[in-house]
Amino acid sequence: MPLLPPSTNDAYAGHPAAPLFLLAAAGLALVPALIHSFLPDGGAGVIAGLDMGDKRDLVISVFRWQGATQLAFGLALLAVALRYRSLTSLFLVLVMVERGLMALHGWVLSPPASGHHPPQHYGSVAAVVLGGLFLALSLRTRPSPERHPG
Fold first, then answer.
1. Is residue 132 within 8 Å of residue 96, measured between CB atoms?
2. DSSP secondary structure string, the chain?
3. Burial of 52 (0-12, 13-18, 19+ CB in 10 A)
4. Are 85 and 41 in contact (CB under 8 A)?
5. Dihedral sign computed on CA atoms, order 51, 72, 32, 12
6. Are 9 and 84 in contact (CB under 8 A)?
7. Closest of 38, 70, 44, 69 to residue 56, by C-alpha
8. pLDDT tens digits for the chain (150 residues)?
9. What radius of gyration, in Å, describes the C-alpha atoms of the chain?
10. DSSP secondary structure string for all residues of 85-111
11. How far is C-alpha 27 from the chain's CA centre?
């Protein structure tokens, strides 16, 4: 049995732009995943501008954990965008849930005390809005080409 089952791309009937958005979302998940996993401070100081104080090791560990989850989700988004497009709508909803929760926490429930918002806070709001647009496109089925008896 192969690692990946056969592609389902031929079963996808939504707008072709929606899987392309998932491809972009995959890239936007994978880049921070690599930053959080491999920068010396996980991006906590140099990108997020956090003062880690005496909890530096803990903060870096949390950023590395986030990088691991982003890497797994980014690879799943990549697989759907390239090979399993019939799952596009589901994964767009998952992107909206993930980013919606990030935006809710970053802007409402626990905004940074310093007032400095990392790039992820802005990108999360944009991803929810764009995800909704591309979800609507993915749910609109394209008319299938009519077959004329030959």
1. yes
2. --SSPPP-GGG--S-THHHHHHHHHHHHHHHHHHHHHHSTTTTTTTTT----GGGHHHHHHHHHHHHHHHHHHHHHHHHHHHT-GGGHHHHHHHHHHHHHHHHHIIIIIS--TT-PPPHHHHHHHHHHHHHHHHHHHHHSPPPPPPPPP-
3. middle
4. no
5. negative
6. yes
7. 44
8. 688 999 999 999 999 999 999 999 999 999 999 999 999 899 888 887 778 889 999 999 999 999 999 999 999 999 999 999 999 999 999 999 999 999 999 999 988 888 878 788 899 999 999 999 999 999 998 766 655 555
9. 19
10. GGGHHHHHHHHHHHHHHHHHIIIIIS-
11. 8
Residue 86: count other Cβ atoms within 10 Å of its Cβ.
16
Cα separation, 96 vs 135, whole angstroms: 9
| Contact in structure between 76 and 22 (CB atoms under 8 Å) | no
Residue corresponding to tokens 């799952």: 87
Which of 93, 95, 78 lies closest to 19 in space, CA to CA?
78
Q: Which two tokens stand for residue 150?
A: 């030959």
